[in-house]
Each structure stands twice: as C-alpha cells, then as structure tokens.
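Model the whole thing, not chain by chain.
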Amino acid sequence: MSTPGLENDVTEKFKGAFRHHPAGVALVTGIAPDGPVGLTLSSVASVSADPAVLVFSVTRATGSAGGILAAPSALVHFLVAGQEPIADAFARTGQPRFTAEQGFQTLPTGEPFLPSARIAVRGTIRETHPVGPSALVLLDVLDVLEGTPGAPLLYVDRHYDSLVSSAAAVEVPRG
Amino acid sequence: MSTPGLENDVTEKFKGAFRHHPAGVALVTGIAPDGPVGLTLSSVASVSADPAVLVFSVTRATGSAGGILAAPSALVHFLVAGQEPIADAFARTGQPRFTAEQGFQTLPTGEPFLPSARIAVRGTIRETHPVGPSALVLLDVLDVLEGTPGAPLLYVDRHYDSLVSSAAAVEVPRG
C-alpha cells in the first residue's frame, strides 16, 4: 500500500498522533469453527444506543481476527486494572490463551466469558467494512453481562495504565 | 427505533457499559457551506496506518454533524488537559463556538485549526455508514499538524479527566 515519500511520511506522523491518544482496553472473544478465539482491542466505541451498536477494528491478516469475523457471535469485555497480563496475552502472538489461570467460563451460547472483566457486551456482527489491511466491525448488541467492578484499563503511549481520579474512588489492584 | 421491554433494557445496559469506558477526547472541525463547524468526539480510533485512515461516529440529527459530513475536508484535533471548556462548548448546543478566546486559526485549506490541541489530523471523508440515528465516518488522512504538547484529555463517567502517570511526566494545567 506504500508509496515512497509523502505517503510514508503521513503514515509515520499518523502513528505518532495516535500513540498518545488514550483508549480503553477491551477483549473480544468468540467461538470460531476451530475453537475459542480472542483479541485485545483498543478501538471499541459506541456508535448508537438505540439500536445498541458498537464498533471496533481488527487487522484482517491475523488468525484471531479471522476467527472473530467467522464466529456466530462475539463478546466484548471491558478490562480493568490488574488484567494487563490477559490484555497482553491476547494482543501478541505466541502467548498462552484461555489458560485455567485466566479464568474464562463458557457461556451457554458458547463464547468464552471472563467474569473478572468489568462488563461484557454480547452481540452479532451487523456489518464489516474492509479498510486497507484492516476491517471495521459493527456489532448488534443482544445482551450485557455484569462482571467485576474495577478501574478501567487504558492503553496509551505503548503501555497499560489506569485512571484513578477523585470521581472514581475505586481501589486499583497493582501487580 | 425502540420497542418496549427487552430492547430498551439492552439500550440502558449498553449505555451503562460505555459510561465507564474511557475515551480520548477529540474535536473535529471543518468549513461547511454555512461557515465553520465543530463537534467534540469521544469515538476517534485509528483503523489503518497505511493507508492512514481513522474512524469516528456522529449523531446525524445535529447541525454540526451535517456540516462536518458536508465539508470538503475535516481536521481532527486531539485535546489536552485544560481544554475542557472547548470540549464542552463543542459538545453541547447553545455554547459559544469559534470565539476569539478559544484561539482558532484558519488553515490555508479553510479548516479552523486549534494550535493549543496536542496534534491535528487533516483528511477527507472516505466513506460514511448510517447506523440507526448515527453515522460512522471514515477519514482518509492527508496531513498531520503539530500543536502544543500536553496530557491527553479523557472522557469517562460523564466527566473530563486526564492521565498523569509516571511514564507521562507532563505538567497538567488545571482550571
């Protein structure tokens, strides 16, 4: 997709602009034909509340993204401080996933559910739109599952962080 | 779009799930046929770096959203701590916009540019996708403009906040 000069320059500047743009961290899971799949996301946003629709993007080349796109439904978990190891395991290839220690349960509908996440939103894919090497995914929300309260996990400047403000007097597990 | 019972229940639970999902705050501006327009966004995400494409969503009913969708180009600013009044002015109707105090400049290409923002990404609309009362907007990025360094502004749980971590040793203006 690259052309030399200006185009690459825009790509690098664009990456730099987003490096410091903070994003809540989410984990999407599903049950694909080959088994459970999961992927860490920093691009989840609400598009519409009625109908309830959310959006995220994935890099199409990865196996996990293919699995999520092929799964009949998806479960988007909002992660909390203390879940950095899980976020990391599902962000990089070759990390252990769905281990006993991570504490996933299986919903009656088949998706891996992480009850230690703050909350999870279950839905079916409404539309996908390819954009270069990525795909934008719109999810029609069917249900919302309560998890465990915690300080929202953030990703910014290539590290995980969390927000502890006076307005959110939440105990933040460290470690 | 509402039906009684389950649907509304999902809508309320969905709003609750996103209430605590932190998001970086951005301001999109453009020059519409009727003059400059701007809108505060908490849904900006990178979709692809090469080609450089970002996504955000707007509520189609508002005049500002219509202006952005009609403008030949758009400028997405990433806001910093201290810019809460500007974020607020462009998030609600009836607030003063593009005042001398807010410090906008006009780019040679016509868009209002806020040099006090951390950085701004200029582009043209690649695609829009209606989703219920909203529209998802994909922006093809043409250029990136440096602004003024600062701690990224966040929106979470109905208030603005900023992240001051050990990794981001940035002086945070308050007030």
